[in-house]
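User:
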Amino acid sequence: MTKLFAIIMCIVFTLGIVVASMSEINESIVKENGLRDKAVTWIDQAIPNNSNGSGK
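Assistant: Predicted structure:
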């Protein structure tokens, strides 16, 4: 019974660490000038802007 309790507690602690890490990652993505904004900027720089509207 003690081993089962220890295994369950390890799983609970591991899940807690994973959830906390996901929260930190999400915060770094959505904050002002975060990873999302940087990725959009990089994509805008990589794709040339055609002003003639031909779509080619």
